[in-house]
Amino acid sequence: MKKLSARRRHPLAAVVVLLFALAVTGGLYAAFAPADTAKADDTAQSLAIEEGKKLYSVGCASCHGTGGQGTSDGPSLVGVGAAAVDFQVATGRMPLQQQGAQAPRKKAIYTQAEIDQLAAYIASLGAGPSVPTKNQYSPDGADIAKGGELFRTNCAQCHNFTGKGGALSNGKYAPSLEGVDPKHIYEAMQTGPQNMPSFPDTTMSEKNKKDIIAYLDTVNSDKTKSPGGLELGGLGPVSEGLFAWIFGLGALIAVAIWVAAHTAKAKKS
């Protein structure tokens, strides 16, 4: 008993016990938790890729090739990333109904779970932009004024000042951004679908993308009303200005013609 008591009073006894406890705890954690979690994640990912490949073979391979390499009817999907798949399929643009100048937005035919599986398979073919998290595209806390400045500089040429959309060449068009899910707007900026240029984080930061989304959310909100009356699709002039130019100026021209005509008659008589 005296020897045991002496060992307990040894200055290094507490250190030895602490090190032993840490070693046991770390060993147990390494042996059970990480391995099981990683294995479960790998299994779930593998299953998603497998199911996504089945969906791809049925609905996409005829245009994009059996391995996503692309054909004369569809571009290669290698390296487009999960974000491109989520955008194109969730907005109904893909699968394409028929070949045309541009893929229109329509009702999605896949569930979100199936879209996630397709995205997992396409992402496995090559690295690309991933599906953004809610924190990345949520407009909460964003700078609306900065977003408006960025949108007018980079997007308004095609989408109009308030995102109402506009016509392009050869039957193409910039779609309206009213009612579009913020996630899909973020994905479009990341991937550059169809005629749109891409704005990766190296070109436009994540914060700037959130600012643009916040601006669009504000100008297209039901609570936001045009102070000038009818907004005329956000083309620029308010309805009163259009009325003044068309009817006001037209009335002045008509009066000028009437005065000139009666002046000429008076001179003849």
From TrEMBL:
Keyword terms, alphabetized: Cell membrane, Electron transport, Heme, Iron, Membrane, Metal-binding, Repeat, Respiratory chain, Signal, Translocase, Transmembrane, Transmembrane helix, Transport
GO cellular component terms given for this protein: plasma membrane
Cytochrome c domain: residues covered: 47-126, 142-220
Membrane topology category: Multi-pass membrane protein
Catalyses which reaction(s): a quinol + 2 Fe(III)-[cytochrome c](out) = a quinone + 2 Fe(II)-[cytochrome c](out) + 2 H(+)(out)
Pfam families noted in UniProt: Cytochrom_C, Cytochrome_CBB3
Transmembrane segments annotated in the record for this chain: 242-261
PTM comment: Binds 2 heme c groups covalently per subunit.
GO molecular function, one term: heme binding
Record InterPro entries: bc1_cytC-su (IPR009152), Cyt_c-like_dom (IPR009056), Cyt_c-like_dom_sf (IPR036909), Cytochrome_c_Oxidase_Subunit (IPR050597)
Residues where heme c 1 binds: 60, 63-64
Signal peptide: 1-30
Location within or outside the cell: Cell membrane
PANTHER family, alphabetized: CBB3-TYPE CYTOCHROME C OXIDASE SUBUNIT FIXP (PTHR33751), CYTOCHROME BC1 COMPLEX CYTOCHROME C SUBUNIT (PTHR33751:SF13)
Quaternary structure note: The cytochrome bc1 complex is composed of a cytochrome b (QcrB), the Rieske iron-sulfur protein (QcrA) and a diheme cytochrome c (QcrC) subunit.
Protein's name according to its UniProt entry: Cytochrome bc1 complex cytochrome c subunit
Organism the protein comes from: Streptomyces cinnamoneus
